[in-house]
Amino acid sequence: MKRFQSEWAAGTATGLLMLYLAGVLLAFPVEVVAWLLLPLPVAVVIMVFIILTDEKISDKTFDEFFYEDFDYRRNAPGQPS
To answer: Is the predicted pLDDT of residue 5 greater than 60, yes or no?
Structure first.
């Protein structure tokens, strides 16, 4: 259930952002663009809160890996390649 919440929150925030950008690029009236902008900060805050309160703990650290779902190791100074 928690994973569904984080995916839903990220998808909603991304969808709202794309809708806002489409409104700007397609030259919607200023009032419409302003109303599209209003829910974005709320959606981002909810998304961040849901992701940060997720109970899943990763066994990979950011010092070793860039992404959890990809096994690419960082090339940090002092680490073997």
So the answer is: yes
